[in-house]
Amino acid sequence: METGSIRLLFVIYIVYLLLKITFGYVWTMLEGSLALGALGYALSLWIPRKGQCFWNQDGPMLKLRTWICYFHLWLNPFETDKLARPSLDGATLEEMGILPSKHELKLEQTRPHESLDQGYEDSVEFWARNEDGSILAIKVGLRADRRAEAWFSWKEGAGGQIYELAQGTSYKNVETSSPNSYKAGGLNLTVLEPFRRWRIIFNGILRRADGTLFHCKLNAIWAAIDRPIQNKQEGDPWILAQAAAALKLDTVSSIVSLRQRVLSGIDQYGSVRGIMSISNESDETVKEVEIQVGGLKTKDYAPYSVKQRVTLQGSTETGFGFSITVQSMEGITITTGHLLIPGTTVVHIDEFEEPDVRYLQAALQRDDFEPKSMFIRFKADARWFNVGITFIPNPFVQNQNGSTLVHAMDITFNCVRGRGMAVFHSPISDVASDEPNNESVVPLLVPNPIDINLQEIPVIATLRSDICGHTSICGGKGASLGLMLQGDPASWGENVHVPDGLCVTTEGWRAQLHENPRWKDKIQDIAACLVQEQFDEKVLSQLQVHCDELHELIKNGRVTENVTSAICQGLKSIFGDDWTSGRRFAVRSSALGEDSEDLSAAGQNDTVLGCRGRDAIEKALLQCWGSLYSFQSIQYRRQNSQPIETPMGVVIQEMVEADAAGVMFSRDPTTGNPSHIVITANYGLGESVVSSISEPDTIRVSYHPWEKDLSNQFKVHGIDIGSKHSKIVMVQEGETCESSVSEAESKIACLKTEIVLKLARLAIKIEDRFGGPRDIEFAVKGDNIFLLQSRPITSLLTWTDYELLHEFDCGALSRSDVLTKANVGEVLPGALTVLTSSILTKVMDLVIQNSQSSSMGSKMSYSPYLMRFTLISHQQVFFNYLDGCLPTIVEPKKNIGHKALDVSVFGHEVTTQRYVDMAIDRRGILTKMENFKMGLSLGKNLLKSMLHKTFPSLGSYEFWPALVNISEDMTPMEAFVEFQKVLLGPMPAATKNHIDVSQNSTLFQLILFMTLTDNSSEWTMDTYSDATSLLVCDDVEVESAGVPKDLRSLSQAIAQNAHAKDFVDCSDTQDAEKWMRSNEDPQIGVAFEQILSKFHCRCLREFELNVQPWGEDCTPLVRTIKAMVEQNLEAKVVKNVSAHTPKKSLDQKLDDLSQKLSPKARRVLKFIVPYANGSQASREKCKAVLIRHVHETRKASRQLARILRQKGFLPNESLIFHLTLYEIQDLVATRSPGLIQKAIRREKLFPLWNENQFPEINEGPPIPIQPRSTSPEANREVVDRIKGTPACRGKYVGTARVVVKLTDAKLIQKGDILVTVSTDIGWSPYFPLLGGVVTELGGLISHGAVVAREYGLPCIVGAQGATKAFQSGNQLEIDASVGVISKLTEQGSTSTT
C-alpha cells in the first residue's frame, strides 16, 4: 500500500475519534473493533517497511509481529480449491451433499500427467491401526517422469510380524492410471465416491521379516468417518502467524505464502475393512484375515524432496483421532495438527505446550535419532488433551533411500489406550540417482496424439500408423496391435515380431453402411425391439429374428469399391505384389470397447483365419461386420450397457504358419499372483487353445524380480502336459483344418524351455509397456516368437462377495461405537437396496444432522461425507445410539431421563453408566450456557408442537406430477436431471417434518414418565401399565390403526353377504379381488376401493423403493380379508373384551391409575397427555405423508429405469434399484459395463443379505446372529418365561404364532398371539385376527404398540429372545400388566382379561 493511503487511514481514524468525543457517543464493541482494525492494518503495512530498526527485535516486538502477521493471514485466506460447505438448504443435490460435486471429484482424482511438475508427487496414503496392534500402511505417489513410489506394509496384531513389498519401496515404472485410480507396485486405489469411499486392492508379493515370501491379496473398502480437512485452506492462522513472526517475514506476500510452504494436502479420517488372503510361496498354505483398521487418508500434491518433518497419527479405543506435524524450516520448528472428536467433528489444534515438542525438534536435528517415548499436551475444542507416546523399536516402513521411516507407537490419550504411527521424513536430493534401471517408459496405452478430425479419418489405417493406436478409430484389438508396432520393432527383443497388416477403420464401416440402406432399416428394427414397453420372451424372439436377418444380409452383401480399393492398396504397400497369392491373412473383428479392462467381449465377434486373395478377404470382412449384429453380440452389448448401434474396426493381419501357439498371462489369471507367469500352448495355430478344441500344455514360470542374479529371476515352476489330441493347421488352399497329433508329440511339451523362458521375459516386458497385467496371444515358428494380440486380464478386479456386502459399511475408528436395530429395525427391516440407502436413508441422516447441528448448544457439524445417525452395515440400517440417544450430557451420572427415553424407544432399559461415560468422553458435559441453549431449542420445538397440536403435513400427492415429468423423448442425462427433482422437492421437508414430530412425541412421553414417577428412578410394572393406559388415543385417529379397522368392517360386510361362501372358496386372490369388485352389493366394492385409495402407498418395508405397495399388489390385503371372513363364517370369533371397552375420559383414566397422584402431578398430566396422544397420531400422519413421497420416488425411479433400458443403458429395469444415485449418474455419463456387472451381482446377493439378523444392541461393527436352523428344536431355548415392557394392558391365553418373516403371516389364525421381531404397517391387516402381540424390538411408540393400544390387544414390547424361546403351537399366557409372557405346561383355555 502506498504511503499516501496509510496517511489517509490515520486521518480517517483521528477524525473518527474526534467525532466520538465531541458528540459523547458511547463506543460499542463493534465500532471499537473497526477502529482498532483500521489502525492495526495501517501499522501492519508501515512497520515492516519503515520500521525495520525495531521490526526485527525480539521480546515485546515478537508479540506485535505475531499479531500483525495474524492480521494479514486473517485478511488473506487461501481460497484456491476450497470445498464448498454443503447445506440441506442447497439448490442442487451437490450443494446439499447428497451427490458429490465435480470439484470434489477433481480433488480426489489423479492429476493429468502433463500437469505434474518436476520434483512433485501426486500421492494418496492410507495409515491405519486398530486396538489389537494391527497396522496397515499404503501409499502410491505418481511423478512427472512416469515413475511411482509404492508402499504396502502390514502387521497382524501387536506381536505379529511385518510384511512388506518384496521389492521394497523402490520407485517403479508407473502403471497407467485412470483418472479415478492410483496404480503402482500391485496396488490399485480407486475413488468410488469422492471423500466418501475408496476401493483398495493389492495383489503382489510380500516379504516377511524372516525373509519368507508370501503372495498377498487384499480387497478392502475405505469409508470416511468425518469431513475432509484441507490443510492449506483451514490451517490455524495463529500458529502460522507465530512462525511468520519467528522468521521475521516483512512483506505481506511472504507472510501469506508461508501457508502454502508449510501446509499441504487433504486429510480425512476413515477406516479400512476387507479380507486379506496370504499364501506361502513355498508350501502354498493359505490363510484369510479380516481387516478392520482405522486411521488417516492423506491426498497430497507436494515436492517429494520434503523438508525435515515428523507426523504423529493416533487413535484411541473411544474413537478419538489426532494428527500432529512438526517440521523444520529455516532454523525454526512449526507444529500444526487436528483432532477428530467422535460423533462431533474435526477441529484444529489451537495450542501446544512448548516443552512438549522439543523432543520432536531433536528428532528433526539428528540423523541418528532413535525414538523411545515422549509426552505431548495440546488444546482443542476448548479442552486440554494429554498424550503419552511410546515408540515401538524398529521401523515399520523404511524406503530404500532412507528418506522415510515409520514407527508404530502405543499411546495413552487422556488415560485411554490407543495406537498410532510416527512418520519421520528427511530431505532427499535426487531420488532417480538412487535407483538403478529407472528408465522412464511411456506406457503403450497412451497413444501418440494425432491431428485429425472425424471427417478426415481414412477407411483403412496401417498397423504402424499413429491413427491405429486409437480405439475410437480402430477398435480395441486394432489399437492394441497398432500400439505394439509403434516405435522401434526391435524393442521387443531379438527374434520377436508383431505380424504386420492394416485395420479397416470405423469410417470404413460407416461408408459401407451408407451404401446399404437395407442394413440401416434392419438396425432400426433391432433398436425398436429394445425400446418395447415390456422386454419379454416374445420381444426377445423378435430380436433374434431381426438379428439373424441382418447377419445374413451383411454376410451376403458386397464390400463397397472404395473400401476394397483402399484395402488392396494398403496390403500392396506393406507386402508388395505377392500379397494376393503368396501370403495368408487373419481377419479379426475389432469392436469399440473390446479388449478393455472393463469389457473383454471375448468370442462375441468373428475371426476368420487363412484368408488368401481379395475375394477371401472381402468375404471375411463381411463376416466380421455381420457378427457385430449377431444375436449373441447384441445381447452381450445390451447386457453390458453398450450402444447397440456401434461401428467396428476389422484387423487384417499376416498369418504365421506356427509350429506352436497359445496364450500367456503375465500373472496368474486366477489368483493374480505376479510371481507366476502362466503359458498355455498347443501345436499348430493358437485357435485350438482359444476355442478349447484340445487340452493344451500349461506351463508355469516363477518370476522373482528381487533376485539380483538375473538368471534366477525366471524359472520354470511346473509343466502340466495336456492331451493335445489335435491341432489346427493351415492347408495349401489358404483355409485351416483340424489335424491329429501323434502320440509321441502329445506326451511332451510343445514348447522348448528356452522359448518358455523367453516368452516369460516377454510377458513381463509387455506388462511393463502396457502398464498392467496382460493376456497375450503368441505363435512360435522355429526360434521366432510372434505377438498376435495383447489385452488386459479382466478377472483381477472382480468384486468379491465380501466387498459387495460391506461396500457401504459406516466407517469406524474404533470399536467404541454403539449401534442399535431398535426403531430402525421396525421402520427399515432387513436389507435395503443401495438406491434406497443412497436416497432415502441419506436424506433421513442429513435431516437429523441438520437438526442436531443447528440446535443451540450443539457441537455437531453437518457433514454429508458420512452417515452419522442412520448407519449402514451389511447393507442394513442401524441407528447410532451414542450420538442419537445421548447427543448431550448435562450431568455425569445416568438419570431418569435416560431411562424414560430407553423405554420409549427400546421398550426396556438400555443406557448404562458406561454408555454415559463414553458419551462424556466424546463431547464432555454441557456447560450451564450450553445447557440453557439446549433447553431453549427443546422448548421451542415443544411450543411449536403445542401450538399446532398436530404438525401440518408438508407437501401432498398432487404436487408431484408437476415436479417429476420423465418422458420417453428425453436423453438419459435429461431424465436423470429430471429425476433429481424428487429430492429437491418436498422430500427433505416431509422427512424433517416426520423426524421433528417423532422427536417431540418422544419428549412428551419423557415428561409423562417423569411426572408419573415423580422423578424417581425406581419404576414398577404399575408405572409402565399406567403410562400405556394414558397413551391410548381415544380422541384422535391413528393412521396405521385405520388399516385393521377398515379391514374388519369390510370383512363383516362380506360375511353378512348371501354369497360370502363363494368368496371364501375363491381359488386365488385374483378371483377374490374380482368377486369384491363385481359383487351385487356395491358397498363391498366401494369399501374395498376406499381402502386401496386410502392406503395405496402402504405395504411391508414401505421405505424400500424396490417393493410393490398395496395399490399395485393388493394380494396381502385380499388374503387377510379372506381369512377374516372365513373365521367369521365359522363362528370362531374370539371376543376381546378390552377391544369393546367404552372410551374413558382423561379424568377417568387418571382416577384408574394404579399409582396415587399428587395434585401437581395430576395437573401436569391433564395438560401433557392430550399432547402426547396427539403427537402419536401426528407422527403417523406425517409418516403417511412421507410414504406418499417415497412412493413417488419409487415411481420416478421406475420411469428413469425404463428410459435407461430403452436407450440401452440398462439390460433390466430392476437393476436401477441396485445402483446408487452416484453410480446412476456415472452410468449415464460413461456407460460403464463394470457398474452393470456390479448391479447384477448385488441383485443376486440381495436375498442372502436380507436373511441376516442382528442383536438389538451392537458394540463395534455389527455381527450377524447365526441363522436359524430349519429344525424348530435347534432354535428353542429352555425358557418358560420372558419379560418385556407392557405396551397395552391386558391378560390373554392363546396359541403362539412365531412369525419371523411377513411371508409366513398367512399362517396366523384367529385368536393367535403373534410373537415376532418387530412390526410395521405391513402387519396391520393381521391385527384384527390377533389375541395378543409380543415383539423383540420396539418401544412404547413403536408401530405394534400404537396399533395394539387402539385395539386393546395385550401387547409386550422389548421381549428379547421371544422368537427363540417359544414356537408356534405353544400355549402362552401374555400378562401385559406385569410384562410377562409365560408358556403353559398344560393346554390352557383361551381367555382374555
Automatic annotation (TrEMBL):
Signal peptide: none annotated. It comes from the Eukaryota. Gene3D superfamilies: ATP-grasp fold, A domain, ATP-grasp fold, B domain, Phosphohistidine domain. Keywords: Membrane, Transmembrane, Transmembrane helix. One of its GO terms (molecular function) is ATP binding. InterPro entries: ATP_grasp_subdomain_1, PEP-util_enz_mobile_dom, PEP_Utilizing_Enz, Phosphohistidine_dom_sf, PPDK_AMP/ATP-bd. Residues 473-795 form the Pyruvate phosphate dikinase AMP/ATP-binding domain. The chain crosses the membrane at residues 6-23. Residues 1308-1379 form the PEP-utilising enzyme mobile domain. The keyword Transmembrane applies. It holds the Pfam family PEP-utilizers. Belongs to the PEP-utilizing enzyme family. This is Pyruvate phosphate dikinase AMP/ATP-binding domain-containing protein.
